[in-house]
Amino acid sequence: MSTAMSLRQDSTPAGDVRDRLIIGLDLPSVEEARRTVDRIGEAGTFYKIGYQLAYAGGFELARELVAGGKKVFLDLKLHDIGNTVEEGVRSVARLGATFLTVHAYPQTMRAAVAGRAGSSLKILAVTVLTSYDQQDLAEAGYAPGLTPAELVERRAVQARDIGIDGIVCAAPEAARVRAVVGPDRLIVTPGIRPAGAEAGDQKRIVTPAEGIRLGADHLVVARPIIKAADPRASAEAIVAEIAGAV
Q: Who contacts 87 (Cβ-Cβ below 8 Å, separation ≥6)?
């Protein structure tokens, strides 16, 4: 694939809509994650490993998935002093993952961009967690009246100017982010729930079709797939919904 292609084209090969679905392996053990991946089979091409699994042996699983031809999104949300983030990202780049998240603080983002230099790893900036609403921001000490959408936009501008590869945001903010970052940077959206699924701890959610129509490149779905009686069928249904909305 030509390196001249845009970031969005590079991350999602033409004709394989399955890559637009990132399946969250939010599971307590590598053994359970392996079983889930096996059950999903070819319906899943892209997997997210977050805190729960990463600290239970998930980094070795990431290597296995990459070796098996799958793509991996390490959702580690790094945030520390610059040198620590830079060296951490440099280590992560050697795992062969496709995406890595950092929190969208300017110093952290600059360090992450420096750390991934020379690799194919793409850095995604987490703007505002999808479990946060305006009251949560106020409790965290942000200016009274600041909305999640406003903070997302502010951080997206900083991420764009620093050279971050993509943004993680809730789908309702995707169009606003796209207007800021332009057509070539990625937008990855968690908080996706198929119609009828429980919201859980998410507060700003949409269906898969809505997420795509709002401008997301990749949708992150965990519980509606991994907790389903038939994870493969659930993944296939979501991919079909994505395909219909593309």
A: 115
